[in-house]
Structures are given as C-alpha cells and as structure tokens.
C-alpha cells in the first residue's frame, strides 16, 4: 500500500491480498512467488483459491466503500448478503467489528461469515497504518475463514501478534508471528476486545497521541492548501 501523503490514509489496491508485498511488508520468498503464479493460473489447491477469493472480494468491497464520497448516512452499496448490514460508506473498522461480534453472539453459520473477518482485518490494517510502526496480516501463521493473525509493532517499538476471530481480537503473543503467550501475563492473553482500536488502547499508551499528532498535521496541510487556493483566486480576480 502506498501512502497518499504524509499522515493520510493509504491507498488500498482492489486486488490487495495478504500474499502481496504491499500488505505484508515482508520479503517475498520463492514459495510465495510460486503460490501467486499458481493462483493466477488457477492450478493452486482449492483451499488456496477459496482463500484468495475471500480476500479479493473483501478488498474490492472495502476499496469501493472508500472510493465513495462520505455523505450523511453513507452511500448504499450492493454487497453480498454474507457481509450483513454494513453497507454504508466509508466503512469503519468499528462498524465491521460490531457486525462480526453480533454474528458471533447470534451463532451465525460459518458459511454466512465468509469474507467477514477478511473485511475487518483489511479495515484494521488500513486505518491503523499511520498510527503504528507496522501492521500486516501474518503469512506464516494459519489463516482461514474463521481465524486470522495480524502482526503489529506499536509506536513504543513493541511487537505483538493479534488473533482475530468472530469472537473478537485477542493478544496472542508479545512477539511477531507467534501464538505463544507469556504465561506471566495470562490476563492479557485471555481477554477479548470488540475491535482493533480497543486492543491498541490496551497495548499502546502512545497510540492516541500519535493519532492526534497525525490528525493535526493533516489539518494544517489542508488549511495551507485552502489559503493557497484563496490567494490564487484573489490574484485572478
């Protein structure tokens, strides 16, 4: 994903999936190249084709929601029924998370949840990308329609592996690409959070400050642009 400008939201390709360099930010291995080639030729194992289809569908939906101009109440999108009622734009990770937690409490069938976790993971990575040192979906740990692991390094330079299921977010480890928790801190690893921002409030005290600084710089940039445009219009008149 490329940054549009300093402290701005990152552009998300409609074809972005966890195997691509833009999302993972990790070197591509020969195995990943082979998997990508197999996917493009349609000769990869069926489970990989299904996995890629879920991620592509979620990425395209999220991209479409971000492309719409924000309006009161949002813009209605034509989306698969499996994504529930989250159809307004732009999509927010909290709204997607609330939908998924509701589905969990209602014991929704697994087939009805396909693509929902991928959508939440994509939104989380996109929204937090400027407020952490790094965040990306793990390519090493298991990844299914019911389980996703996200690596994050906070502004305090502390690495975490976060587990995402329909039940919510959980801190799986204080290391990247790991499912081994710290037995001295069982309370942290057994606590579930409703959305990614609740997790960040717990593990990164500097997260909100970073967000506020980024927002202030962006507002200053917008104000400078507005002043420049007004000056140019004054000169023309």
UniProtKB/TrEMBL annotation:
InterPro entries recorded = GSKIP, GSKIP_dom, GSKIP_dom_sf
A Pfam family recorded for this sequence = GSKIP_dom
Molecular-function GO terms, alphabetical: kinase regulator activity; protein kinase A binding
Q: Which residues form the GSKIP domain?
A: 118-220
User: Which Gene Ontology cellular component terms are annotated?
Assistant: cytoplasm
Q: Which GO terms describe its biological process?
A: regulation of canonical Wnt signaling pathway
The source's domain of life comes to Eukaryota
Query: Where, if anywhere, are coiled coils annotated?
Result: none
Family, per entry: Belongs to the GSKIP family.
What name goes with this protein? GSKIP domain-containing protein
In its UniProt entry, the species of origin is given as: Bursaphelenchus okinawaensis
């Amino acid at each position: 994903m490329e940054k549009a400008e300093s402290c701005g939201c990152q552009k998300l390709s409609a074809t972005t999936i966890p195997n691509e360099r833009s999302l993972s930010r990790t070197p591509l291995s020969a195995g990943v190249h082979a998997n990508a080639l197999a996917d493009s030729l349609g000769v990869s194992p069926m489970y990989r084709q299904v996995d890629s289809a879920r991620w592509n569908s979620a990425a395209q939906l999220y991209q479409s929601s971000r492309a719409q101009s924000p309006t009161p109440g949002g813009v209605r999108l034509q989306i698969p029924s499996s994504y529930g009622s989250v159809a307004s734009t732009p999509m927010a990770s909290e709204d997607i998370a609330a939908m998924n937690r509701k589905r969990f409490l209602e014991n929704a069938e697994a087939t009805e949840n396909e693509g929902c976790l991928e959508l939440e993971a994509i939104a989380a990575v996109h929204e937090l990308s400027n407020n952490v040192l790094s965040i990306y979906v793990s390519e090493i740990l298991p990844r299914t329609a019911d389980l996703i692991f996200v690596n994050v390094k906070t502004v305090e330079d502390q690495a975490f592996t976060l587990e995402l299921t329909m039940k919510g977010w959980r801190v799986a480890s204080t290391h990247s690409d790991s499912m081994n928790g710290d037995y001295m801190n069982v309370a942290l690893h057994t606590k579930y959070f409703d959305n990614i921002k609740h997790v960040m409030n717990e593990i990164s005290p500097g997260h909100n400050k970073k967000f506020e600084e980024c927002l202030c710089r962006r507002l200053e940039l917008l104000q400078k642009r507005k002043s420049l445009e007004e000056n140019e219009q004054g000169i023309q008149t």
